[in-house]
Write a structure and sequence with these properties.
This protein is α+β, with helices and mostly antiparallel strands. The strands form seven sheets. The chain has a nine-stranded antiparallel beta sheet, with helices on both faces. Strands 6-5-7-3-8-17-9-15 form an eight-stranded antiparallel beta sheet. Helix 3 packs across helix 5, helix 12 runs antiparallel to helix 13 and helix 17 packs across helix 18. The longest helix is centred in the middle third of the chain and has 35 residues. The chain is globular.
């Protein structure tokens, strides 16, 4: 009976503790429906009900976004409920109410409840002040101006819902608001109709030549025009943007919604955006317009009814890297209908997400696909939670225990008083004099005594405890703000504690999970070495002097360089590597600007004397095999990427605009040796080689038509482009590929030459802490490419399972590759990283580093960051260790290095993957773990396992895939990791980063801190089993002190 009672009591408390106040005041909104956005055409009849109204499933949410927690109506009840989650507040309220009855009153009831009112009032004022700031921020965002298409009879048929009444809208009458906002943007956009709203004091922009002439030369770009019936761009506010609207965004402006790009100011119809608000990455990303909509470059074109189309998209979701949508064009001409497909794929590369900022692009015109709560950034942000620290959550059960003790004391007093009164009342005890009243009952008196005891002993739960905690948190926030040790001088920025409630959690961190690139390192890539045809080329130490010499020599010798190629064979199965670039007749020259424009100059150039000598030897045909290898290697570097070119306005030199520092470093290195990527015109790539043309004059400009881009993803770990050479004598199709060595090697053709030598060079590069990349290529027969292109297009236009189908089709083509070589890039550490990690280790905090680099690179970085000390013992678990199961590797490591820790329970020993018992007494010979398992004896070092510096576990992604597969594997991995002072996970995917964080949080129940700087770290950071998880991005520096 008693255990059942206590279980029921515990379950009741757990349900109360898990009560989510937000759910009581915020209606859970399901993601919007799959949608079809209609542009320049009416809604179908089936979209309306019998009364002619648009059906609810086709009504989209407004673009109004509210992050505030309270309104005038909900502030008092919601804030009180949040505060009365504290058991102590409930107790003191009950005591105060009890003393309002004369029978129990000890002092004035007002004085009794005054301390509780002060605590509630101070906390409510703090919460109210924070929410007023949220309201102000919401208003600034929702009232940000944006240009939308208007005039010319254009209407938007897509139906929108009603906007919510915010703090201001619910209190201030509309008439007073309009009067207060006179002269500002005012827009009461009708939600359900497609009619054009009445515009007051709205700026108008005309972008076509005819309208600009009408405006007159003396007017500003924005001006009040007397005739607003012509197509134009009208300024409105963000919250009035609707699904299906055409919007025009200018440079340095934020995107108000998720927008499909129609056209941009750039010749290639590309746009550059800064996604810092989404994923924390500061480098620019490139996006391109939908090729079928690039003619929509003016307001007049957008309002033309002939330009009508539909955009079909999937339901709004939280995935910021995947979009399944299609564009459907209704072509009128039957012949044209046969020639072109009506359905075209739309992916995330054609979409600008809300919250991103347009950069280095004059303007972008697009169609709104998702608004407000349906946008990716809002769906990922979630509601505004009521955060509670671990200390505050632990206080509730402790206070609850105090209340139980207090109740027991009060019950004891009540029972004793009632028993004594029952015993002594008939005996006329003197202290019971005059107690023979009609309303005097010994049993009832016991209850009264119980209430008095509760009042008397109430100090066992001091109300000052909560006040003290709030004061301490405020002081902690001030100390953090004024701490000079965590002040960033470069940006003149102190550390700001945005949530005071969580400041005390910082001192309870036991495990830190950190990304490497951009977090421990600066994400500033420098090309250092490369391996080509079995030979390593390293950058010369004195880069600047050598760069000057190379530039001088290049200017005098470029006309004499002529590299002969064997163009007789175009088969991909030739004995010698088939060249990507063969002898050719002169092609149509590039534009004069591209030929005369100075090549790009990086901050650090790659200059190698041995490479220069080999290029000179190649020019004189002394080594044709190496000539083809060099030519192919740097051609892949210069063509396999998504880099775009621009012009530096100050120097007039060409500059590269890359999505990642890695791509910029690789393309810059190719340009440093003479393979200059000259840009992209629509789908034609221009490559300048360091050799003379067929006439022995100038430099040769080669042209390639870009057919397909198989983009890099964290799952694919490779990128490929399919190009066709534009030459009269050579029109072959090439697949150019670059990626991680393990991915590329498994896709090489059988018996590929130079593989072993390249693997050895990759190991040397990784041991120096360099990031490595492997290059390969393939010649595709024309018939094979045509068949594959049909399958690729069919996969790209499907909505369900598009990513999986594209990956399958891409993998079909990326087979039987031919190896070209490998690159090595240096990424230097952030300031203060080794000192910070050393201090964290001394504080007893365990650090897990997750990276996508090679195992050898991860170990080298571990040494340079002090994560792996000089005396540390390294345990390596690999997924490709000669077929040896991962479970056996972990079990042997537990036996070999921690024999006294009893990590292997009987259940683990009986596991199906565990090896049979040893037959020999020689344990060392039976389990040569440190050499056979790792194959890295030179990196692990001598006497591994016997050094006094503790243990570090290093495990790769393929091993993690098995180690996280079932309960037994996860249990053993966690036990093994707990024995180590640090863990390095290499070659891991974003999902695996999240799984290892969840493994520690759920397995150990400890406070963890996840740190990252990029989109691939979001899943790791968002893993949380409680509200106390601390989330954040690191961009600038690791500090060498731990408070």
């Amino acid at each position: 009976m008693a255990p059942a009672f206590f279980r029921a009591l515990a379950n009741t408390y757990n349900r109360l503790a898990a009560l989510n106040i937000e759910n009581l005041f915020v209606r859970k909104r399901e993601p919007g429906p799959r949608r079809t956005v209609f542009v320049n055409e009416n809604l179908p009849a089936e979209y309306h009900d019998a009364k002619g109204r648009v059906r609810p499933e086709h009504v989209y949410c407004t673009n109004q976004v509210l992050t505030s927690k309270y309104t005038i109506i909900t502030f008092i009840p919601r804030n009180l409920l949040e505060q009365f989650r504290r058991v102590a507040n409930i107790f003191f309220l009950a005591i105060a109410i009890l003393q309002f009855f004369n029978k129990f009153s000890t002092i004035s009831p007002g004085l009794v409840i005054l301390p509780l009112l002060i605590v509630l009032g101070i906390t409510a004022l703090k919460d109210g002040y924070e929410d007023v700031k949220r309201h102000q921020s919401d208003r600034r965002v929702n009232h940000t101006p944006v240009r939308v298409l208007s005039g010319g009879g254009w209407t938007n048929p897509n139906a929108m819902g009603q906007k919510s009444r915010t703090f201001v809208r619910g209190i201030i009458p509309t008439r007073l608001r309009k009067k207060a906002q006179k002269g500002q943007l005012v827009s009461d956009h009708p939600a359900q109709t497609g009619t054009e709203p009445k515009v007051e004091h709205t700026d108008v922009e005309y972008d076509d030549a005819h309208e600009e002439i009408d405006m007159g030369p003396g007017l500003h770009l924005f001006g009040h025009h007397s005739d607003h019936s012509r197509p134009h761009w009208r300024k409105t506010i963000w919250e009035d943007v609707r699904v299906g609207d055409f919007v025009k965004i200018r440079d340095h402006e934020q995107l108000p919604a998720d927008i499909l790009i129609c056209a941009t100011s750039e010749e290639e119809n590309v746009a550059f955006v800064e996604t810092k608000n989404l994923d924390g990455e500061t480098n620019l990303k490139s996006r391109h317009a939908c090729a079928q909509l690039t003619h929509l470059r003016t307001a007049t074109n957008c309002t033309n009814l002939d330009n009508h189309f539909r955009v079909e998209g999937d339901r709004p979701n939280v995935n910021m890297f995947k979009l399944n949508a299609t564009l459907k064009l209704d072509l009128k001409d039957a012949a044209e209908r046969e020639k072109e497909r009506e359905t075209y794929p739309i992916d995330m590369q054609m979409v600008l997400l809300r919250g991103t900022v347009l950069r280095n692009t004059a303007w972008v015109i697009g169609v709104v696909m998702y608004t407000g709560q349906d946008t990716r950034i809002v769906m990922n942000s979630g509601g505004t939670p009521s955060k509670r620290s671990k200390v505050e959550r632990q206080m509730n059960p402790q206070v609850f225990i105090n209340l139980i003790i207090l109740a027991i004391m009060a019950v004891a007093c009540a029972v004793v008083d009632s028993v004594l009164e029952h015993y002594y009342y008939p005996r006329d005890a003197y202290w019971l004099y005059n107690d023979n009243q009609s309303d005097d009952n010994p049993s009832i008196n016991g209850l009264i005594t119980w209430a008095f005891a509760m009042i008397t002993f109430q100090n066992i739960v001091p109300i000052s405890l909560y006040i003290s905690i709030e004061v301490v948190r405020t002081c902690q926030a001030l100390f953090i703000y004024f701490d000079s040790n965590i002040y960033y001088k470069k940006t003149d920025q102190p550390t700001l504690a945005r949530s005071w409630n969580l400041s005390d959690d910082l001192g309870q961190i036991e495990y830190i999970f950190s990304d490497k690139t951009g977090t421990l390192t600066q994400n500033s890539m420098i090309f250092r070495q490369c391996s080509i045809a079995g030979k390593v080329y390293s950058g010369d130490p004195d880069v600047e002097d050598e760069a000057k010499k190379i530039r001088e020599k290049t200017s005098t010798q470029s006309q004499s360089l002529a590299l002969p190629f064997d163009s007789s064979s175009s088969s991909s199965t030739a004995a010698s590597p088939s060249p990507l670039i063969t002898a050719q007749k002169p092609l149509p020259t590039a534009t004069a600007d591209s030929l005369t424009m100075p090549p790009p100059q990086g901050s650090t150039r790659f200059v190698s004397a041995s490479l220069t000598n080999d290029l000179r030897a190649a020019a004189h045909a002394s080594d044709p095999v190496r000539a083809r290898a060099l030519n192919g290697f740097f051609s892949v570097l210069a063509l396999c990427h998504t880099v775009l070119t621009g012009t530096d306005p100050e120097t007039g030199a060409m500059e590269y605009k890359a999505q990642s520092p890695d791509e910029a470093a690789l393309v810059q290195a190719a340009a440093d040796v003479g393979y200059v990527f000259r840009g992209r015109e629509v789908d034609v790539l221009s490559l300048q080689t360091p050799f003379a043309d067929d006439n022995g004059e100038g430099t040769r400009i080669e042209k390639y038509r870009l057919l397909n881009i198989l983009e890099f993803t964290s799952a694919r770990k490779r990128m490929s482009v399919v190009v066709r050479k534009l030459d009269e004598d050579d029109g072959r199709v090439f697949l150019l590929c670059k990626g991680a060595d393990n991915v590329i090697f498994e896709r090489l053709r059988e018996g590929e030459e130079g593989r072993e030598e390249t693997e050895r060079h990759l190991g040397e590069f990784a041991s120096e802490g360099l990031r490595t990349l492997t290059l390969a290529y393939k010649v595709i027969p024309e018939a094979e490419y045509e068949e594959w292109s049909e399958r690729y297009h069919d996969a790209s236009v499907t909505i369900e399972g598009r990513e999986e189908k594209l990956e399958k089709v891409s993998d079909e083509l990326e087979r039987d590759l031919r190896l070209l070589g490998a690159t090595a890039i240096e990424d230097s550490l952030q300031d203060g990283v080794p000192e910070a990690i050393a201090d964290l280790k001394r504080a007893g905090i365990k650090i897990w580093v997750a990276t996508g680099d090679k195992l050898e690179t991860a170990i080298a970085i571990g040494h340079s960051t002090n994560l792996i000390g000089r005396e540390s013992n390294i345990i390596v678990i690999r997924g490709d260790s000669n077929g040896r199961p991962v479970f056996q590797q972990m079990a042997h490591a537990a036996e070999e290095f921690f024999p006294g820790a009893n990590l292997l329970s009987e259940e683990v020993v009986n596991h199906s993957h565990y090896p049979p018992p040893r037959q020999s007494t020689s344990s060392r010979s039976d389990y040569p773990l440190r050499r056979i398992t790792t194959g890295l004896s030179s990196i692990v070092g001598p006497n591994n396992g016997e050094r006094p510096g503790g243990f570090v576990l290093v495990i790769d992604g393929s091993a993690l895939e098995h180690a996280l597969a079932d309960r037994e594997n996860k249990s053993l991995l966690l036990k093994l990791a707990v024995q180590c002072e640090a863990v390095v996970c290499c070659r891991v995917s974003p999902l695996q980063k999240a799984l290892i964080v969840r493994l520690v949080k759920e397995g150990l129940g400890v406070m963890t801190l996840a740190i990252g700087d990029g989109a691939n770290d979001v899943s790791m950071i968002q893993v949380r089993c409680s509200e106390s998880t601390i989330k954040g991005f690191v961009h600038a520096v690791w500090f060498g002190t731990v408070s």
